[in-house]
User: What shape does this take?
Amino acid sequence: MSKRHSLEEVRDFIEKQGYSLVSTEYINAKTPIIVKCDKGHEYSVRFTNFKSGKRCPECAIIKRNESKRLDKQYVKQIVEEAGYTLIDIIEGVKSKPKALIVRCDKGHEPYKVNYQNFRKGRRCPECKAEKMRVDLSIIKENMRKEGFEFIKGEYKSNRSPIIVRCPKGHEYSTTYGLFKEGKRCSKCRTSKGEIAIKSLLEEILIDCKMTQQYPVKINNTTYHFDFCVHANKKLFIEYDGIQHFVPIEAFGGVDGFNKQKINDKIKDDYVKNNKDTEL
Ligand SMILES: [Zn+2]
Ligand SMILES: [Zn+2]
Ligand SMILES: [Zn+2]
Assistant: This one.
């Protein structure tokens, strides 16, 4: 189909690409010829392949190495622009950076991060934990809003163990992170009396739904009723342990007792003022 080229035509084409023809003979487009690149490397190539773009393989290797070198320089620049220090590059396929070992500007332990994630803005986990740390007064306030009380614990981050007192007066160990996720007092969940009531309710309630620790918002604070039976009205059931009637040391003593009384009163009033609820 394609017409046979003359040696001159071939040489002309090759020279226009900045290369030169070393061979002094040309048979056809499928017979290898020797050409020399503009850097002086000689290699053998079929003219048909040269026409479709096959260039000096040695130059290609050099170029690839250069781009690799550039890549490292580029990665270093990206890391330094973030104010971080590049410790190491873990290469992935085709010598592209896969992960980096970097150190933050606060001098925390170097950490490993996926290169793409670093580019998307993932920064030092320790810095993040520091930033996530909430002021203790805010934590106390957030807990108070839900009727919980921060008792003790050295709060360093959302994962530090702290002791909290639940609205029912149980003191238990948790973390602020868990509290934020909605994990509440485990002692409340396992109170024997409540378990008994629960199984009783499950047995007698056939058509209505029942919720345990039903939350109600009163004046911006969340209170919980032990049970709520969803009938034509909301029927609340409270299982009150002894701490509702006399001060008990394990439930915060007199302080805890007074708080308990206030909480109970607020909940009682709420039911009294809402026609569609019953206690
Ligand atoms: Zn070359
Ligand atoms: Zn850091
Ligand atoms: Zn509790």
Remarks:
- The pocket of zinc ion (ligand 3) is lined by residues 166, 168, 170, 185, 187-188 (CB under 6 Å).
- The longest helix spans residues 57-81.
- The longest strand covers residues 209-218.
